[in-house]
Every structure is written in C-alpha cells, then in structure tokens.
Specification:
Layout: E1 3-7, E2 12-18, E3 23-29, E4 32-38, E5 42-48, E6 50-54, E7 62-65, E8 69-72, E9 76-82, E10 86-92
Antiparallel strand pairs: 1-2, 2-3, 3-10, 4-9, 5-8, 5-10, 6-7, 6-9
Length: about 90
C-alpha cells in the first residue's frame, strides 16, 4: 500500500512504500531551507538535483549531488538547503 505524505506546507512530498527489506520513501523537495527530523535511521540518496546538508553534530555543510548518499542517525535532525527541486530515495532502518 502506498502512503502519500506532505510536509513544509506542501514543499516536500513523498510516497511511502515497503521494499523487499526496508520501508522507504521516494519524494521531491522544492528549493528552500528545511530542518528534517529523523525518528528512525535514514539512508537518503539524491536521485536528481542536489542537496546542501548539515548533518547532526557537524558545523560543516556538504553538497550531495545526483547518485550520492548520506545517513542520518535515529532521533536526530539534519538541515537542508536546496537551490533547485530535488528528488530523493530514502530507506528507514
């Protein structure tokens, strides 16, 4: 069963589903700045576009481009700055 989610006044939309091994979402974030909470461990891959990310516990920002992946520990949050709409795939452990 697909689950449609919408966040940040509709600027982030995703579809949740169950992969063979883990729950996942595929979605799009419009250009903007966000702080995203992760209740579970997340592995996020940029499908198309780019995300400038500040991971928890870090003062540094890193840009993740198409095909690149980053991980966010459970119970934390990360900051994101996007200059273009960006598609992502995320699994939850």
């Amino acid at each position: 069963m697909l689950e449609v989610n919408e966040y940040f006044a509709g600027k982030v939309k995703s579809i949740g589903f169950q992969t063979r091994t883990l729950p996942a979402t595929i979605g799009v974030m419009e250009a903007g700045e966000y702080e995203v909470s992760a209740s579970r461990h997340e592995t996020m891959t940029v499908i198309n576009g780019a995300m400038r990310i500040q991971l928890p516990g870090s003062d540094e920002w890193h840009t993740y481009n198409t095909g690149e992946t980053f991980e966010v520990p459970a119970g934390s949050s990360f900051k994101a700055k996007l200059t273009i709409a960006t598609a992502y795939f995320c699994t939850y452990a």
